[in-house]
Amino acid sequence: MEEHIVASRLFKGISMEELRGLLKQTHYVKKSYSKDSIIVFQNDRCINMILLYQGRAIGEKINYAGKVIVVEELQAPRVLAPAILYIKDNRYPVSVYAVEACEVILIPRDEFLRILQKNKQILFNFLEIISDQAYFLTKKLALYKLSLKGKIANFILQQRDKSGNNEIKMWSHQRLANLFGVARPSLSRTLLEMQQENILEIENKMVKIKNLTALRKLAE
C-alpha cells in the first residue's frame, strides 16, 4: 500500500520513512471496491480525504433530466474531490464508480487538517492539486461552448498531445457519448461526418488524424 501512496502527488517530496511515520500517527480506514461498485454517491457529505491509491474510477453526474454525464476519469493515485473537503456545502457533485478493482484510504478531514498544519510539503501539494483542479474545471466549462465536432476535436487533440502520435486508440462510442453528454447516435453521426470530410480516419478502434489544421480549427 505505502509504495502506491507515496507515489501520489499528495505525498510528493515525502520519503517512504516519513510516510510510514505519518500513517502510524494517523487514524485512517482502508477500503476495497470491486469493479462497478460505487465509491461515493452524488450529494453525500464529504467528511474524509479519500485517496484512490490503486485502480481506476470515473466521476459521473446525473442532471435534472436524468442524463448521465461523465465528468472525469480518475486514475490512481488520485485524491477524490479535494476542492470540496473544507467548503461549507461539502456535498459530492458527482458519483464515483470503480471502473476496475480499486483501493482507497479515508482520513477524516479534521485529522487531515492536522497533517496539513504539521507538514508544509503536504500542504503545498494539496493546494497545488486544488489549483490544478480549478484550472481543469475552467477548461471543462469552455468545452460547453463548442459544437459536438469541436468537443470531439478537442478530445482527440488532447489524446494526441499525451501520446505524441497522430494515431490514437479510440474510446467506445458510448463512453465518448457519456463524456460529451450526448446520445450515442448523434456522436456516431458526427464521427462519420468528420471521416467524410477527410479530417479523421477510424479503423480497428484507432483514430488517425488526416487534417490536423482542420481539427485545430474545430477546437477553437
Summarize the structure.
The chain has 8 helices and 11 strands.
Q: What this model shows, in words?
A:
The chain is of the alpha+beta class and 220 residues long. The chain has two domains: 2-142, Jelly Rolls, CATH 2.60.120.10; 148-218, Arc Repressor Mutant, subunit A, CATH 1.10.10. It is 42% helix and 25% strand. It has eight helices and eleven strands. The protein has helices at 2-6, 16-24, 109-118, 120-143, 148-163, 173-180, 184-196, 212-218; strands spanning 29-33, 38-40, 48-54, 56-62, 68-75, 78-80, 95-98, 102-108, 167-169, 200-203, 206-209. The strands form three sheets. The chain has a four-stranded antiparallel sheet with strand order 1-8-3-6. A hairpin with a 2-residue loop joins strand 10 and strand 11 (206-209). The protein is elongated. It starts with a helix and ends with a helix. The model has no long low-confidence stretch (mean pLDDT 87).
